[in-house]
Design brief:
By secondary structure, the protein is mainly beta. It contains one helix and eight strands. The protein has a single domain, classed as Lipocalin, CATH 2.40.128. 11% of the residues lie in helices and 54% in strands. β6 (86-97) and β7 form a beta hairpin.
Length: 118
Amino acid sequence: MKKRVPMLVSVLLVGLLFLAACGGGGAPSLVGKWSATDEASGMKVTIEFKADGKLAMGSGDVVLDVGTYKVLSASQVELAMDFMGQQQTQTVNYRLEGNKLIMSDPTDPSSTLELTRE
């Protein structure tokens, strides 16, 4: 996990990331604040999905980047962020398991990030 969390955080920050409430059907919602802590470094990563489709990512209590998200299906979400003045979008896979949100890069399924709802 030591290498995966910083790598995924980097991916997130360059626009390769992370979700709106699923519309209807009683599906679990991604809206809320999610976090993970790298065991080796102790670095805390947070992702907050807001009901209005906005997204905030950070480390600890510091917001590092903001953007928007759109749930495409029950297993994919599109993330859009500005990086160095350019809009970057990325589709990521996700699944909810209780209070866990597991996100992965569709081009590299071994690159995953497991977050817990706060």
